[in-house]
Specification:
single chain; about 200 residues; alpha/beta; Rossmann fold; 5-stranded parallel β-sheet; 7 helices; about 10% strand; globular
Length: about 200
């Protein structure tokens, strides 16, 4: 297979994964938007976490909310728990990497806040601990997973929202997670500002 053919197949596979996911994910994404808007309108905040590419997704979400997505609007309260190297390294050194997000959720999260927990496999130990900490502190959880949802899918409460990409390949799941994040940001703006286009 030459590179042009291989690249073309990547584009096709990515597009097909997203098309195949519409029916399964549109409803949960809409529910997540409503939960996030309710949180923000009640002076709550969005916390987000994940590892590797999912850490980048958590930061991307927070950046779009605090800055802006496509339309000018007031700032929205969001924190990526993946960005403070001093906090992360101190917690990892003293308590183990498994606790790097959970301790931040306990320190920063308040009842009524929302945790966006991102894990392509649904089995990231530190994201699992963050979900447990969110539940213990009365935060709702919006989980972005794939591969059937893994252990995180089993932990979620009825009041949480599970957005599980129906795919097995990590790259396809992550690409769809980015689309979901853009849908969340667009939907939040739509509900907060009446954006129609």
């Amino acid at each position: 297979m030459n590179l042009i053919t291989r690249i073309s197949q990547q584009f096709k596979d990515s597009a097909q994964t997203k098309l195949d996911a519409i029916d399964a994910l549109a409803g949960p994404v809409a529910q997540a938007i409503e939960v996030m808007v309710g949180c923000l309108l009640s002076n709550g905040k969005i916390l987000a976490c994940g590892n590797g590419g999912s850490a980048a997704d958590a930061q991307h979400l927070a950046a779009e909310l605090v800055g802006r997505f496509e339309a000018e609007r007031h700032e929205l309260a969001a924190i990526a728990l993946t960005t403070d190297s001093s906090i992360i390294s101190a917690i990892a050194n003293d308590y183990g990497f498994k606790m790097v997000f959970a301790k931040q959720v306990r320190a920063l999260g308040q009842p009524g806040d929302v945790l966006v927990a991102i894990s392509t496999s649904g089995n990231s130990p530190n994201v699992i601990e963050a979900v447990n900490a969110a539940h213990a502190n009365d935060l709702r959880v919006i989980a972005l997973t794939g591969k059937g949802g893994g252990a995180i899918g089993e932990l979620l409460y009825d009041t949480d929202i599970h957005i599980s990409v129906p795919a097995e390949r990590t790259a396809r799941i992550q690409e769809t997670h980015l689309l979901i994040i853009h849908c969340l940001c667009d939907g939040i703006d739509c509900l907060l500002m009446g954006v129609e286009e």
